[in-house]
Amino acid sequence: MSRFLELNELKTYFPIFLGTVFRRAAGTVKAVDGIQLxxxxxxxxxxxxxxxCGKSTLARTVMQLIRNTGGAVxxxxxxLSELNPRQVRAERPxxxxxxxxxxxxxxxxxxxxxxxxxxIQTRGKLRKAVLTQKIAELLTTVGLPPNQMRRYPHEFSGxxxxxxxxxxxxAPEPKLIIADEPVSALDxxxxxxxxxxxxxxxxxxxxxxxxxxxxxSVVKYIxxxxxxxxxxxxxxxxxxxxxxxxxxxxxxxxxxSAVPIPDPIRERxxxxxILQGDPPSPLDPPSGCVFHPRCPYVKEAxxxxxxxxxxxxxxxxxxxIRIGEI
Amino acid sequence: MPLLSVENLRTYFxxxxxxxxxxxxxxxxxxxxxxxxxxxxxxxxxxVTCYSILGLIPQPPGRIMGGRAIFDGxxxxxxxxxxxxxxRGKxxxxxxxxxxxxxxxxxxxxEQLIEPLLVHEKIxxxxxxxxxxxxxxxxxxxxxGRRLHFYPHEFSGxxxxxxxxxxxxxxxxxxxxxxxxxTALDVTVQAQILELIKRxxxxxxxxxxxxxxxxxxxxxxxxxxxxxxxxxxxxxAATGEIFARPMHPYNAALQQSIPALHQKGKxxxxxxxxxxxxxxxxxxxxxxxxxxxxxxxxxxxxxTLQTMAERHxxxxxxxxxxxxxxxxxxxxx
Lengths: 326, 333
Prior knowledge:
Chain A contains 11 helices and 12 strands. Chain A has 326 residues and is of the alpha/beta class. Chain A has a single domain, classed as P-loop containing nucleotide triphosphate hydrolases (Rossmann fold). Chain B is globular and about 65 Å long. The longest helix of chain B has 18 residues. The mean pLDDT of chain B is 86. The interface between A and B is large, with 42 and 42 residues.
């Protein structure tokens, strides 16, 4: 077990109950359904998929904010899913999360100083002077003036708040960062500042990162490898540029072709694959390959057996039985 | 002859923090059947521009300080409310960003769909309902006869946006204003909706004003683009020109900061700083504090939009003076 992070057949199911007086189980939502994945130290993995595909549940399961129903999460060989809640808390300084909405993820009644102090001291109490010194350093690292540490979150703009959220995630000196749509709520000109900051931090501090986004061009730019998720399962995984430029799985193809390119000449020349309908309900997933009801290349065999995520080309895995034929 | 011509529109908001100049001297023309894009970041005034035209700005705190919006010989900003009501929802209609909050959750979709027909046309309820079914079918909703009587919450996000489009187009408007209609949707659904608007536009010959912050959507959809920054139009041109020959540093920088056009490994181009506070007076060019090319004159002199090439306007003093040439090469695409 030399991998830095390993997800072994990870499953997170949510039971659904109906009725208020006579509660009865009405089924399970398989939000994360058998994810097999490993990350090297210092690697950046991009996770893409449509809303409701289970990206955020996967992130929260790795963080152990939601405990998994089956499978295991190994961080540096240690099985996090076996730990009790207290032990998870003790481990958590090693893995931290950045959330999408910087307006909701910072406590409005805590100053920047207090929010960061709390995060730093998860590794043990510090003397006041040392603490303030550390907070100042953190703020400088994320590009904020240290003299603003006594301010409250509402005094900052969206981009600045996201910098504070990044500083807070860095405060306990984690090894793994999970960023759940960290730039989706920001304007284009601010978005590029935050992406540059995240990349620089990962490089300088040898951080491993799972970067979740629905924006494929952002993910392609930032990550080493891309994993494509659909209805709780991985459809394809491979080197970032290869997945976007020559996608193997029909779903990845449709996803990539749906993204408008900001270049009118290329945009008009290309063929767009338009999927019909919406993703099916995870409460009642289709049989066989979960993508088959929307897949343009579907045939009978796809409806029967669930395809495994297999190596189709060197370093590239995809879960589709028709890849050689299409 | 243009279908809609907006001249020198100014919309200010009187707030406790001061007067916010949300839209400051904006003019544009819309030809029949054309697709026009307005692109800008949040707070650049693109939505307020369109809300002002349709008289949807709450007054107070908002106030239309000046300008005209001529649609078929009628000034929409100056005419009385009754007159505007005859046009709005009938000849000019709108699709909003969030289909979740812009449909009434208490009313069945059928009621909301036929409302424009009942208001604007002498038509029986039954006939209106028939038309509503047809309009739902036209936007690709299957089993429309049954789904017509659903409540909004029974539809998914993409479906709700289809209902919004059906509602906006049911009265066969001449102008459709689409305010970020796909921002809340997934890319695969976005592709469906864009295709749908395009097809309906072809069928009905509607002119579309498309408001977005996504340059990719602009490239895919619009013929003519207006770039807004801090309540003003800083550049306007045909879509190809906007991308091939940017004439304003803001437009060039915006294109630079998109990861899609970027090579991996190189740091992304960033625009330093933040957009200006619109409640403070801005004497010169509003982009000058963040502009790489700014000179002292940019911060002092008032800037106006000037035509530099055929249908290509810029509000950059230095470009107008011929001091900047190839902005695309300068930032290194």
